[in-house]
Design a protein that fits this description.
By secondary structure, the protein is an alpha+beta fold. The protein is built from 5 helices and 14 strands.
Length: about 210
């Protein structure tokens, strides 16, 4: 099961769902630039930045994404219909990032949205690459859990986690922020990122306002 499901934890009413699904389209030796231009798509060279939290990010145009270090190679990136694409010629592949909230235009993602999501992704990959949804290889799934709680309580949980040692077995903590915590496995296959969503969105708004 890859779509959201509802759980009730007392008064929290926790909703656990999928935030984004990333795919790889393999066997793309050449990208049809003329097709992209005909659709009015602007594309940009990929640039890479290593964050202070140890993660690798790729930038192209106005887009910034987290990426696996092994995919930090030259290529081009572009966006279309709220989906994000990176063509990596070295690997003959296209990395596809789909945020379900943007693709489906809704906040709460349900199992009943499955076929609609597949249909929309299938249409886009066919339009851009002449491929079908069945040709996509699943690369990554990001889940999210929105929990409403008093910010003092949340920070207390985070501070309790900081009292634990930074490394335990194959798990390590790699960030040093007061308002968030990032825990990852040795090679980054699994990670947990806990942060204040309200503060995050507020900071984004302030930065845009200052611009």
């Amino acid at each position: 099961m890859i779509f959201g499901f509802q759980k009730n934890f007392g008064k929290l009413g926790e909703l656990i769902m999928i935030d984004s699904i990333n795919f790889i389209l393999n066997g793309v030796q050449y990208l049809d630039i003329a097709r992209l231009m005909a659709l009015g798509i602007d594309y940009y060279p990929l640039r890479y930045i290593k964050g202070i939290n140890g993660k690798m990010y790729v930038k192209y145009g106005n887009v910034t994404e987290e990426t696996d270090k092994k995919f930090a190679v030259s290529g081009i990136g572009f966006s279309y219909n709220d989906m994000y694409f990176r063509y990596l010629h070295q690997f003959d592949c296209v990395m596809i990032n789909t945020n379900l909230h943007k693709v489906l235009g809704k906040t709460d993602i349900l199992l009943s949205d499955r076929d609609i999501y597949i249909s929309q992704v299938d249409y886009i990959v066919n339009l851009l690459f002449g491929a079908e949804f069945s040709q996509l290889d699943l690369h990554r799934i990001d889940y999210c859990a929105d929990i409403e709680m008093d910010y003092k309580v949340m920070y207390e949980y985070i501070h309790q986690l900081y009292k634990h040692k930074a490394k335990y077995g194959h798990i390590k903590r790699i960030n040093n922020y007061e308002t968030s915590i990032y825990i990852t496995s040795l090679y980054g296959q699994n990670s947990i990122n806990i942060y204040d969503k309200y503060k995050c969105e507020k900071d984004k708004y302030i930065k845009e306002y200052e611009k």
